[in-house]
Design goal:
Length: 220
């Protein structure tokens, strides 16, 4: 069944050569960040590398803040991102390579193995993110598409449902079909604070036209 809604004590373990927290919380938020230094190349026509980096840093800070008190795990292999994440109170899972889907699948399976009950996966390019903590719905999947209903900005899942991640073109529809395959009830959330991401110059221009305060990211 598809529902549509609008919503505005840790122990260190060593896994795969990194420090991972065996979390007592039942719900965690996973944030994949490949890099800041070469992020968003499609914006290069209107922003130089320094401004793209600054913009993505600010977006990542916004997403981390939107996690509230929930444990935050950043998935990355980039040393700068690792340092940034730890400085912002996040734990780390190392991205072993192979692309976004294998990396997220590995992290999800790792969290399942450590007894986490629910995982929310949020991309780090959501400049208006406010609250990711309310996306958990017991025994349901919550899917937040991008504004074009093409990509998947946020997905929140029970951690034992053997979900296969399918990021890339048309991932929103593919994730819907995967949730249906597993018999999960789907909670579709189209909250503009989460559906707006920044991938293209058009995304950025629309954001600037409607949210003038974002200009400060481009003027620094």
């Amino acid at each position: 069944m598809l529902k549509h809604s609008f919503m505005p004590t840790l122990k260190i373990m060593s896994i795969n050569g990194i420090d991972l927290q065996k979390l007592s919380a039942s719900h965690v938020i996973l944030i994949p960040i490949r890099s800041f230094s070469d992020a968003k190349s499609r914006l290069s026509a209107i922003l130089d590398a320094s401004k793209r980096t600054n913009l993505m840093l600010d977006c990542a800070r916004k997403v981390i803040a939107a996690c509230g008190d929930l444990p935050k795990l950043v998935l990355t292999s980039d040393p700068f991102v690792q340092s940034f994440a730890q400085n912002h109170g996040c734990h780390l899972i190392e991205d072993k390579g192979g692309g976004l889907n294998p990396a997220i699948q590995h992290a999800y399976n790792l969290l399942v193995a450590y007894g986490i009950e629910h995982v929310t996966i949020a991309h780090a390019d959501l400049p208006l993110a406010q609250d990711l903590t309310k996306l958990r719905v017991k025994d349901q999947s919550t899917i937040v598409p991008d504004r074009r209903r093409d990509g998947t900005n946020v997905i929140s899942l029970p951690a034992t449902c053997d979900f296969h991640f399918l990021y890339g073109p048309n991932s929103f529809e593919r994730h819907l079909q995967e949730a249906k395959r597993l018999g999960l009830e789907i909670n579709l959330v189209e909250d503009p604070t989460l559906t707006i991401d920044i991938d293209t110059p058009d995304d950025l221009m629309e954001l600037l036209n409607n949210h003038k305060s974002i200009l400060q990211h481009l003027e620094s």
